[in-house]
Every structure is written in structure tokens, then in C-alpha cells.
Amino acid sequence: MNTNGNISRAMGWQGSYFIDNDGCVKYYDDGSTSYRITKNGDIKALKDGWNDDVYVKNGKIQRSTIVKSSGCNYFVDKNGSRQDFKVKNNQIVRPDNSMAVSSGIYAAAGKKYPVDNKGKIQKNSTVFIKNKAYETVSDGSLSKQPANHVHLWKAGSVTEQIDHKAKTKEVQIPVKEWDEEVWSEDIKHVCLNCVWNKKPKQGESWVDINGDGKWTARKEGQIYFKDFCYDSASDLEAHQRGTTHGQAAYAKVLLDTIHHPTADEPKYETTTVITEQARSEYYQDYTCRVCGEKNERFC
């Protein structure tokens, strides 16, 4: 329907409707969304991207503008149809006003051209667009071969990690001199009151076993257990009745410590040593900052 109220079959947009070459309504636009008219007369919203030769962005067919798809710039005319840019005076220009384009890659004459900021075609060259290199052939169009350059790799995500535990082994190490501790075979009955009476007086030295700064009969007083231990409960009870002591401990007792000089009796002790440190290996993605090439490295 045109402005005179008559039905128009001219190809192109007639108000909110697009008429194709056969005079049929192909698209409809309600102002916010573009639709395809099916053969059955139904309307179907167009998806973003290329739909035949029209480009849809945010639900609407783009018209009289430049659209970018898959890294390349395309021109769509007033009807939304894709048109190639033109090659003129060694430049890529818009087909609607012959103005030179800005930096980018453009579809023209059925080829793709990487050009600089004034649309200038550079033949048999390496063209940099946003720090990415493109190689051109004799007519200035994009070569299928990657540009000759030094890769500048940027580390990406780790795709796989393999962890290796540390490797160890048991070895015999000679001990220059050593002390042999002789412990009781059986549990002894120890009078803690007697042990407490051995508490060092002010100014006397003693060994702080647990590092709390306090001398106790159960910890620091263990060196005196052998002096106040009994083989049986009845022996301890007899002692307690005669002394009114009542605190006791039950443990194996260190009876003696025998010092062994190296010259007399050499000794070896088993210890664990690390032969290989724990480590991780991983696969990581890398992308070239210049050409965008990707590869995976084992690190």
C-alpha cells in the first residue's frame, strides 16, 4: 500500500513491507523487529546474522550501512541487500557515495581486501589492522597464506594438568656418635609426688620438654621416673600408705641412656631422602597477538 492508498508491487521497501522481484511480500518490519513472510502467509522473526542476503542485528534488518561479519566489512544498500564495496583509484570505496573506507577488511569485487585508514590498497604487502598482520597478493586482496611475521604468543587457559609426586628413597646414614635409650619392657607404677619433690629450685637449670615454660612432674620430671617407680600396684600402694602420697602415673620408664662413641661401635640409621621434587606438567593454549594463530604447548 503506497501513500495514495494503492497497492504497489515495485521491488523494495514499501513502508513496513519489502517486495521482492516477483512482486511478493518477503519481509515485514514493525519498527522494532524484522520478520520473514512465509509461503503460508505466516510471519517469522529473523535471527541475528545473515539471512539470505540481508543482515540482521538486534532483530532488525540493517539498511544503508556497513556491517561486520566474521572479521570482514560488508555494505548493505537501502533495501538491506548485500553489496560489494568498489575498487576505485587503488582504494576501497563505498558503493553508495564513493567515499574511501576506514581501516579494516572489506568485501569488494568478490574478494577481501585489508586496507589502511584511507581505504588504500597495498599490493604484495603485509598490512597491520589493530596489531594483526595480513598478507596481500598482487591485486591487494587478502592472501590465503598467513602474513610473514614473528609470532608474539599470549598465554591462555590451561587445558590439562598432570601432577607428579615427589620421589623418595630410604638410605643408610652413618651416625658419628649416638645415645642408646634403655626402656623398661613393662608398664611401671610411678609416684608423681616423689617426682614433684625433685622440682628444680629457683636458679637451677632444667630442660623444658614441651616449651611451655613450666616444670611438671609428668613431662619434665620423666627423668626421675626410674627412681620412683614400682613393679606392681600393691608396691605403689604400700609406698603411698607410708607417705600419704596419692598421685601416680603408669608408663614405660627410661631406665638408662648409653652413649656410644663412633670409634667403638659405628652405627647407621635409616632416613628418607627426596630424589626428585614434586612437579606439575600442563598443556596450555597460546594465541599469537599478531595473526591470531593458536597452538597448544606442553609445559
Draw up the topology in text:
Layout: E1 12-14, E2 17-19, E3 25-29, E4 34-37, E5 43-45, E6 49-51, E7 54-57, E8 60-61, E9 65-69, E10 72-76, E11 82-83, E12 86-88, E13 91-93, E14 104-108, E15 111-115, E16 126-129, E17 132-135, E18 153-164, E19 167-175, E20 178-183, E21 188-191, H1 192-196, E22 229-230, H2 233-243, E23 248-251, E24 254-260, E25 267-276, E26 279-288, E27 294-298
Which keywords apply here?
five-stranded antiparallel sheet, three-stranded antiparallel sheet, Cell wall-binding repeat protein
Give a written overview of the molecule:
By secondary structure, the protein is mainly β. The protein folds into three domains: 12-135, no CATH class; 153-165 and 279-298; 168-274, no CATH class. 5% of the residues lie in helices and 44% in strands. It has a five-stranded antiparallel beta sheet, with no helix packed on it. A three-stranded antiparallel beta sheet has the order 6-7-8, with no helix packed on it. Strands 9-10-11 form a three-stranded antiparallel beta sheet, with no helix packed on it. This is Cell wall-binding repeat protein.
Principal-axis shape:
elongated
β-strand percent reads: 35-45%
Low-confidence blocks of residues:
none
| Count of separate DSSP helical elements | 2
Structural class: mainly beta
Radius of gyration: 46 Å
Question: Largest sheet, order of strands side by side?
Answer: 1-2-3-4-5
Biggest sheet architecture: 5 strands, antiparallel
User: Roughly how many Å apart are the termini?
Assistant: 68 Å
**Count of individual beta strands:** 27
How many discrete domains? 3
Order of helices and strands: EEEEEEEEEEEEEEEEEEEEEHEHEEEEE
Q: In which range does the helix fraction lie? A: under 10%
User: Overall mean pLDDT score?
Assistant: 85
